[in-house]
Amino acid sequence: MAAQDVLGQTARLASSSALLQVLFRVVTFGLNAFTLRYLSRELLGVVNVRLTLLYSTVVFLAREAFRRACLSGSAKRNWTKTINLLWLTVPLGVFWSLTSGLVWLYLLEVPDPSVVPHYEAGVVAFGLSAIIELLGEPFWVLAQAHLFVRLKVIAESLSVVSKCILTVTLVILYPHWGLYIFCLAQLLYVSVLVMCYVIHFVMFLGSPEATKKSFPVARVKALLPSFVEDETFVNWKEARLTWSFFKQSFLKQILTEGERYVMTFLNVLNFGDQGVYDIVNNLGSLVARFIFLPIEESFYVFFAKVLERGKTVKDQKQDDVAMAANVLELLLKLVLLIGLTITVFGYAYSQLALDIYGGSMLSSGTGPDLLRCYSLYVLFLAVNGVTECFTSALMCKEEVDRYNFVMLALSFIFLCISYFLTHRYGSVGFILANCFNMGIRIAHSTHYIHHYFRESTHRPLTGLLPSPALLLVYILSAGVTAFSEVLFCCDKGWMARLIHISAGALCLAATLVTMLCTETKLIHFVRSQFLSRYLKKGT
User: Fold this and answer.
1) Which residues are listed as membrane-spanning (predicted)?
2) 3-state SS string over 21-58?
3) For residues 466-480, b (16+ Cβ closer than 10 Å) or e, as one string?
4) Is residue 378 within 8 Å of 342, Cβ to Cβ?
5) How far apart are alpha carbons 78 and 236 in whole angstroms?
6) Alpha helix (H) ranges present in 107-148?
7) Distance, CA of 130 to CA of 59 (rounded, Å)
8) Angle at 97 between CA 91 and CA 101, to 5 degrees
9) Nearest CA to 44 among 374, 279, 361?
């Protein structure tokens, strides 16, 4: 597949995933706002922090390394061996689920049964849900490698909608069920997700469409593990790369979910405060989840397909190098501007957003400060996602192993800083520690990118430099909106709030107009790659 075709399909995958994440976040936030009025903060803290951490830990450790390794390089490979390798995620998931489940049941503080009943059933259900989801891993990787955009959208949409419908129904009819509600909803979510992928491939394989596309897997039976005479069970090159990524993924999980591990294992916050922190954290991560994560996942596939892992820039096709450098520069500029916008406007509108969303329970106390700090953290997330996406797609096995040592040291430092900052500043300390963590990771990734392109004429890191005019507008907007918040927000009535919102809207409009005038290359990239098919539909 030509590099230009890969770019087009990757951009469509990223834009579709972004729209899908918008749906997820809107539904999730609506669900949280609804359940806040029926269920306790302690119950939400146990579900959203303790049990969700169990599920994400098992799934991440069991599959992340396999995804990275099996999506590297061309889609033309011995898929029998790749599928065999991917099925190893299931026994690995069983191991992590049993191990983590025992820790969650017997080593961690158990919630008060009178406040949060059925905790043991919750641990079992969320551990089981992780194993069920891993049963669909070979199907997911095959679909992702061949850029099946529509399948991902349909599967994840149906699973999320099904989960939310069941949750709302049970919360209204049987609120006393407590954790049972979320256990059933979680099991339904993963079951629908896996079944969508299985049903699609059962219908697709052997069809005229699959034959026309020369799909590398001909029968459904080929999606199951199988032995081939006189050949190894797996591709050992992929297996060794998987092991390298596995060591990195273990550390990356600690860094990604570090604050939840500190909350869970060190008991620095009670379950009620954990519930509030999680709600604010989810609200703050809205943009990161529905824009930055789809871009990172999709363009990892692009860079892995266009450039060959382990080769220097001189040994690559120069046309592909030029395209990859240009795309990297524009992606950095795109996420930087989104991150700056969130940081600037998030500071002055955090308290108002929390007051509208959850009332005084969220807008009083540390809630607004949490969200303000998270607005800054979004900027770090934005840049780190794209820079790590590029480096993960290009690093050879030896470089991945060296990076693992860096991550190991960073993990230890991060956990120590999280613990001390949390004792000093409360839950805000978690976000400050995350900013430090992301800053170090960005420094490593940008150093790698600079070193990679130093023997070429391309300088993609210039994407991290916004135009002076746009930077000036951001500074003025920050000053105006902060002054507006002091005068009009948030206890002076709805008319004052509307004035505050209007001031922000005018500043945002001025920012966007300046962006359109000064970042023409970026605007063209967004229009041509992300918005092209939607613009065509509208004409």
Assistant:
1) 12-31, 43-62, 83-107, 119-141, 153-173, 179-205, 330-354, 374-396, 403-421, 427-443, 464-488, 494-517
2) HHHHHHHHHHHHHHHCCCCCHHHHHHHHHHHHHHHHHH
3) beeebeebbeebbeb
4) yes
5) 12
6) 119-134, 137-145
7) 6
8) 155
9) 279
Burial category of 494 from C-beta neighbours within 10 Å (exposed 0-12, middle 13-18, buried 19 and up): exposed
First to last CA, the chain: 29
Token pair of 352 as six digits: 């108002």
Tokens of 264: 């869970």
Q: Tokens for 316? A: 């690559």
| Residue pair 245/65 in contact by the 8 Å Cβ criterion | yes
Residue that the structure tokens 């430099």 belong to: 465
Tokens of 380: 């770090």
* Structure token pair of residue 153: 């959208």
Asked if residue 489 lies in contact with residue 351, where contact means CB atoms within 8 angstroms, the answer is yes
Q: Are 255 and 414 in contact (CB under 8 A)?
A: yes
Do residues 358 and 36 lie in contact, with contact meaning Cβ atoms separated by under 8 Å? yes
Determine how many CB atoms are found less than 10 A away from the CB of residue 78: 15
What is the distance between the alpha carbons of residues 236 and 66, in angstroms, rounded to a whole number? 13
* Cα–Cα distance, 486 to 364 (Å, whole number): 16
Closest to 353 (Cα-Cα) out of 289, 280, 415: 280
Q: Report helix, strand or coil for 199.
A: helix
Distance CA 114, CA 60 (A): 32
Tokens of 72: 């590297």
Q: Return d(Cα 179, Cα 43) in angstroms, integer.
A: 7
Residue type, 116: V
Whether residue 242 contacts residue 66, with contact meaning beta carbons closer than 8 Å, is answered with: yes
Which amino acid would we find at residue 198? V
The tens place of each residue's pLDDT in the chain, 539 residues long, gives 555 566 656 655 555 565 665 666 666 667 767 776 677 778 888 998 899 999 999 999 898 888 888 877 655 677 888 888 899 999 999 999 999 999 999 999 888 888 888 899 999 999 999 999 999 999 998 888 877 777 887 888 889 889 988 988 898 888 888 899 999 999 999 999 999 999 998 888 878 887 777 787 778 888 888 877 667 777 788 888 888 888 777 777 776 777 788 888 887 777 877 877 887 877 777 777 667 877 787 788 788 878 877 777 787 778 888 888 888 888 899 999 999 999 999 899 988 888 877 777 677 777 788 889 989 999 998 899 889 888 888 887 778 778 877 877 877 888 888 888 888 887 888 888 889 888 988 998 898 888 888 888 888 888 888 889 999 999 999 999 999 988 888 777 788 889 999 999 999 999 999 999 998 888 888 887 765 544 444 44
**255, 436 in Cβ contact below 8 A?**
no
Six token digits for residue 401: 């192993």
What's the rounded Cα separation, in Å, for the pair 528 and 535? 9
